[in-house]
Amino acid sequence: xxxxxxxxxxxxxxxxxxxxxxxxxxxxxxxxxxxxxxxxxxxxxxxxxxxxxxxxxxxxxxxxxxxxxxxxxxxxxxxxxxxxxxxxxxxxxxxxxxxxxxxxxxxxx
Length: 109
Fold this sequence. Notes:
Layout: H1 8-11, H2 13-20, H3 22-26, H4 34-49, H5 68-79, H6 81-89, H7 100-108
């Protein structure tokens, strides 16, 4: 029987949490509206289907690009107030952080 090799980064709960964070998936700030969430999901979904999804605007470009299932799961998560609050606690607030620009630059490199 062949053993499946698990990539260490994927096996990490912390990395997976960043991979699946709806704000990262949809590339939106913490203060986005539900309407902005839906618009971003539709645009990103169309780009993904067309094979034109681009990691340049991703705050963590070294992680895998999200697929359509993850995109729409992110919409569902951000539409529910309690789930959204939890995800906000585990994401970066680039706008309110006095060193937000430096943090953003560090994550991209």
